Design the sequence.
């Protein structure tokens, strides 16, 4: 089932999410719905707060970018209760966008590599090191679990310059092909 994506300005995007257990109601269906919603919106990642659920759950499928970034050829994941356990000191600046903030793209500084611990869709514990674009995608999505959106990570001057557009998004004045929900 395709779910509405909550837009910038909705309070659910500013709440810190909570861990879940493997008996979370209808977890498998929720994961399927999140992937379906993400694909419909042509995204590469979706965090549960973006569909109105303040739980620590993220789905990622960045394989569509593999033509330009071969390291993403097999990058499809479900992250349950993820934790970043180590950040590199090396930073990279990459242009980011977000399904909850459509049509805005800004440069964001991110750690070049990181270690993550999480449970997969079968509630098996996984620890892996991610670098490059994998690390960037994961940091963006994990921020949502902390109530952070990518525009929080840009300069105050850039954010001020975008404020009118952000206010319009919060009012639902967007031209997107997917279902949305406003505050």
Sequence:
């Amino acid at each position: 089932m395709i779910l509405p994506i909550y837009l910038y300005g909705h309070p659910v995007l500013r709440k810190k999410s909570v861990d879940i257990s493997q008996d979370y109601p209808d977890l498998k269906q929720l994961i399927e719905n999140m992937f379906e919603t993400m694909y419909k919106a042509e995204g590469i990642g979706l965090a549960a707060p973006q569909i109105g659920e303040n739980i620590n759950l993220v789905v990622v499928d960045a394989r569509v970018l593999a033509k330009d970034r071969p390291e993403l050829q097999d990058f499809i994941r479900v992250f349950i209760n993820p934790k970043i356990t180590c950040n590199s000191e090396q930073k990279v600046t990459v242009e980011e966008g977000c399904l909850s903030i459509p049509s805005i793209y800004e440069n964001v500084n991110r750690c070049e590599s990181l270690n993550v611990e999480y449970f997969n869709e079968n509630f098996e514990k996984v620890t892996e090191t991610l670098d490059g674009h994998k690390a960037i995608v994961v940091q963006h999505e994990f921020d949502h679990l902390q109530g952070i959106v990518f525009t929080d990570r840009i300069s105050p001057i850039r954010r001020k310059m975008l404020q009118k557009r952000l206010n319009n998004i919060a009012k639902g004045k967007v031209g997107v092909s997917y279902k949305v929900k406003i505050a």
Summary: Strands lie at 5-6, 45-47, 57-61, 76-87, 91-98, 101-111, 113-119, 125-131, 180-181.
